[in-house]
Amino acid sequence: MDRDTYYMQMAIEEALKAKQKNEVPIGCVIVLHDTVIGRGHNLRETEQNATAHAEMIAIQQACHTLKSWRLEDAELFVTLEPCPMCAGAILMSRIKRVVYGTGDPKGGCAGTLMNLLDDSRFNHQCEVTNGILQNECSKMLTTFFQELRMKKKGFLS
């Protein structure tokens, strides 16, 4: 198994933690020199906090681990393409590389709607790799939303 796949699998494990809490299954890990320094999964519903995205939680944990807001050589692995808020936090924390599983046609800012992470107008840019375990990441989200719709219609308990 290659390195990107290995860490994306960890991000998927985080996403499954979110799903167990009836959260949208999005997970993230941040790696520095092959050591995980931050983990997070979506907690928006649990915390009723619009900023409780997997990336935001993982970035906060990584900064706490390093006792620094600068995550300059770190890599972020996330199951869903970062939104504008998370892309901004990634830039502000100086993360070197972002790897995501599946694109987000409604909010993706790492290549789908725009690429904030590679915009030369900012003082920092990130390398972006996409499509790692794309089928697994996409299916996890699709299944979650299908089941949610079925529950709302009364077909699932």
How would you describe this protein?
By secondary structure, the chain is of the alpha/beta class. It has helices at residues 3-20, 44-47, 54-66, 84-92, 134-152, and strands at 27-32, 35-41, 75-80, 97-102, 127-130. A five-stranded mixed beta sheet has the order 2-1-3-4-5. The longest helix is centred in the last third of the chain and has 19 residues, at 134-152. The radius of gyration is 15 Å and the shape is globular.
Write the layout of secondary structure elements.
Layout: H1 3-20, E1 27-32, E2 35-41, H2 44-47, H3 54-66, E3 75-80, H4 84-92, E4 97-102, E5 127-130, H5 134-152
Parallel strand pairs: 3-4, 4-5
Antiparallel strand pairs: 1-2, 1-3
In short:
The protein is an alpha/beta fold. It is built from 5 helices and 5 strands.
What key attributes describe this structure?
157 residues; alpha/beta; Cytidine Deaminase, domain 2; 5 strands; 40% helix; MafB19-deam; tRNA-specific adenosine-34 deaminase activity
* CATH fold annotation: Cytidine Deaminase, domain 2
Number of strands: 5
What is the chain-wise order of helices and strands? Answer: HEEHHEHEEH
Whole-number mean pLDDT: 96
Subunit structure: Homodimer.
Keywords: Hydrolase, Metal-binding, tRNA processing, Zinc
GO molecular function, one term: zinc ion binding
Organism: Caldibacillus thermoamylovorans
